[in-house]
Amino acid sequence: MTEPNWVRIFHRRPEAVCRLVCFPHAGGSASYYYAFSELLGPDIELLAIQYPGRQDRCAEKTAGSIAELAEAICEALTGELDGPFAFFGHSMGAVAAFEVARRFQQRTQPAPSRLFASGYPAPSRLRGGTVHRRDDAGLVAELRLLGGIDPRWLDDPDLLATVLPPLRADYHAIETHPRTAEQLRGTTVTMFTGDADPHTTLEEGRAWAGATTGPFEFHVFRGGHFYLDDCLPRLARHVTDSVGRSTR
Questions:
Q1: At what angle do helices 92-106 and 157-175 cross, to 10 degrees?
Q2: SS3 of residue 116 by DSSP
Q3: Any residues with CB less than 8 A from the CB of 154 and at least 6 apart, and which?
Q4: Which of 112, 142, 214, 231 has the most other CB atoms within 10 Å of its CB?
Q5: What is the pLDDT of residues 82-94, one digit of tens each?
Q6: Rounded distance, CA 90 to CA 192, Å?
Q7: Residue 90 designated active-site
Q8: With contact defined as beta carbons under 8 Å apart, do 236 and 39 qualify?
Q9: pLDDT at position 3 over 50
């Protein structure tokens, strides 16, 4: 069985021909992918990664860097992905997914047939940033800018006390992660982005083509950083169709 601390499976599909490992955004949790799991085709079983420091792992220390996070996830998944599999990561999760895939290849393990990157610049175009240095009000302002969370929750001090510490840690991890020009070998990379995402320009999205020696696809949706909240059925069809092509 997969490592229980790291993986959540919301809809078990024993007959699935492919498993899709999903990596959350900064401050996000595995449960963000529940609706996505529900919408995917019957041939795909979704495994959502649960980062430490949130929800049922709130007592655990958050990862200090993307490298540390990727190493831990790689260890948890090693030997557990029998058969075809793919990765999907949104925002910070896109870079984490790339780093885990890269480590799989470095260790001569089977690599994902596809990497779906969503809502973040390519590893070679990372911007850095100082959001993690802001005070709590500054972090809340970032959440209001990006969306993806009910604005009413941002006025709840008890909820913010739970949400902001892992969010700050995640922003520190992704904003201090170095750029890399290293490539995945042969893995198809599909990049999704919103046309009004303040974190990712279309040029930064297209730069994911350089993250692999394999094929590249690029899809733009209407919306901002959390375009997928409004476009989830369409996104699920894209992923289902793409995974189907990879496993034929």
A1: 50
A2: strand
A3: 140, 143, 144, 160
A4: 112
A5: 889 999 999 999 9
A6: 9
A7: no
A8: yes
A9: no
| pTM, rounded to two decimals | 0.94
- On whether the CB atoms of residues 141 and 116 are closer than 8 A, the answer is no
Instruction: Find the Cα–Cα–Cα–Cα dihedral 87, 90, 96, 97, rounded to 10°.
Output: 10
Among residues 176, 149, 169, 168, the alpha carbon closest in space to that of 95 is found at 176
Residue pLDDT, tens place only, 56-67: 999 999 999 999
Distances from the Cα of 239 to the Cα of 60, 116, 163, 190, angstroms: 32, 8, 29, 9
Confirm whether 31 is a catalytic residue.
no
Annotated catalytic residue: which of 29, 91, 113, 118? 91
How far out from the chain centre does Cα 15 lie? 25
First CA to last CA across the chain, in angstroms?
Answer: 26
For residue 72, count other CB atoms closer than 10 A to its CB: 18
- Cα distance between residue 190 and residue 187, in whole Å: 10
Q: In what order do the strands lie in the sheet with 188-194?
A: 7-8, 44-49, 18-23, 85-90, 114-118, 188-194, 216-221
Catalytic residue among 90, 172, 177, 225: 225
